[in-house]
Fold this protein.
Amino acid sequence: MADRLRRYEKSAGVSTPASTYTGRRLGEREFILFIAMISAGSALAIDTLLPAFSAMRDAFNLPEDSTGLSLTITLFFVGSGIGNLVYGPMADALGRKRILIGSMVLYGLASLMATLSVTLGMLYVSRFIWGFAAAGPRTAAQAIVRDYYSGDAMARVMTLVMAVFFWAPVAGPPLGKGLLELGSWRYVMAFSVFTAVAIIAWSLRLEETLKPEHRRPLTFRSTMAGFRSVTTHPVTLGYTLATMFSAGAFFSFLSSSELIFDDVFDQEHWFVPYFSIMAAGMGLVTLLNNRALHRFRARSVALSAGGLQICAASTMLGLTLAAGGRPPFVLWITIFSLANACMVAFFPLGQSLALEPMGEMAGTAAAVLGFTMAMFGALLAEIINQAISGTVTPVGIGYLAYGTAGMVCQLFAVRHQQSPAIAGRPR
């Protein structure tokens, strides 16, 4: 994996970032791996849990076809969305490293609380806090990358980060299943405690990337002014909303796929192998995405990904309606996977393009982006999840509707990217 990263870094023109301080810092390859593992913390907190849902339904006396446990995923995202609004301004005021380490401590404590949960209510509360904590590392990571890079260079780095990140979904379900067989679903929860400790220890090698003279005051007026600047910039707003709609469809895939395999298609034994293969394919998509960025602008690749997602969703919905809501499993899952791959191709591009105009307000911008993705993306996903009842028709409708809305938002952002008034706006 390291050799592959080295080849892609060289071909992408990724240079070693200038050091902000004279303290010890991570090398380029370690930097990408570190940022990817920070981001993977949230994925591991979700993906390792999915194979344990069946055992958790038994533990909490839930019916076999209950969608109640999907709320543990939704609450995680809602907590993450709220957490972004807290951590973003703090990262711009106090620095990235403090926020990273502090939030990882809370991440470990929340996972311990989930491990010890004796009621479903306690589990829900712990998952919300867990998601709130997970927003800190994610916000700090995006701000750190933006401190070093901008434009298409940032998009190339983000695709490399995401390529490594997708090893978490590959390993997550088999790891969760192994921990489940070793002990119980509580073993799955407890694993994230050790993940938090490892990342905190690794963070000690990271130097602060935000110079003191670039920090913003942590006051109500300054925070509101920062949020207003981010949410009124048409390019940032357009790509943020486009990413939100893609997240709504993709989060539905994460939280409802186990139920679809089991309740709709009666293929529960294929869930873990499929999820791992799908995650590996997504990692490959991000590497291909990186190669495409050598020849094309990030916004062009993002538009192509959005267009292909709409085509896949249209085909998926047509096939589903023709089959009365239960299409042939292999054919449907192939098209479903293609639609998800298109969204994965768009994510690092949409996030990079949204952060590009923000400069030193990267923490606040990442907070708004993360909040919108996590909070509203989770709510959009829950609309699809709650409609699934023995049929995948809601998935096709949701994917097409969200994909179309996302494309409209992308076109809005592109129109303003080409506007001299916006292009010349000071950062």
About this structure: Residues 234-264 form the longest helix (31 residues). The mean pLDDT is 82. Residues 384 and 398 are 6 Å apart (CA to CA).
